[in-house]
Specification:
Elements (H helix, E strand, L loop, with lengths): L1 H7 L5 E7 L5 E6 L5 H21 L7 E6 L2 E7 L4 E6 L5 H24 L1
Antiparallel strand pairs: 1-2, 1-5, 3-4, 4-5
Length: 119
């Protein structure tokens, strides 16, 4: 899975990526310089829990994509079934093009997870 994250990080404007379970465990991480794994995982987990809880209150199951824009840049979360793909980007990135790259990475992650679970 790390190779998928490394490839995703080659996209211009992406500063790092990781896979985090719903309960905050880091599955794989490829974060760029200046990004602390614990801090990014904690922020992602907080967003996942809070958003999921709020959505359940309005009878929604969950989310497939969440984008947080902040002063440091953007934090994108994509549901990859086994975990969430967390991507940290520059604030000025073309998010539409980046979403396509993230979705492609999620497809590869899901495929690898299915192969691993069958073995």
């Amino acid at each position: 899975m790390r190779d998928t994250l490394k490839n995703l990080n080659q996209v211009v404007g992406i500063n790092g990526s990781m896979l985090v379970t719903r309960d905050g465990m880091v599955v794989a991480s490829e974060l760029g310089e200046g990004l602390e794994e614990e801090a990014v995982a904690a922020l992602a987990t907080s967003v996942i829990r809070t958003t999921t809880r709020a959505l359940r209150k309005i009878n929604e199951e969950g989310f497939s994509l969440f984008i947080l824009t902040a002063s440091f840049g953007r934090l994108a979360l994509v549901d990859a079934e086994i975990a969430y793909l967390v991507v940290v980007t520059e604030r000025t990135i073309n998010i539409d093009a980046t979403i396509l790259e993230m979705q492609s990475a999620v497809r590869r992650i899901r495929k690898k997870a299915r192969i691993t679970l069958k073995d």
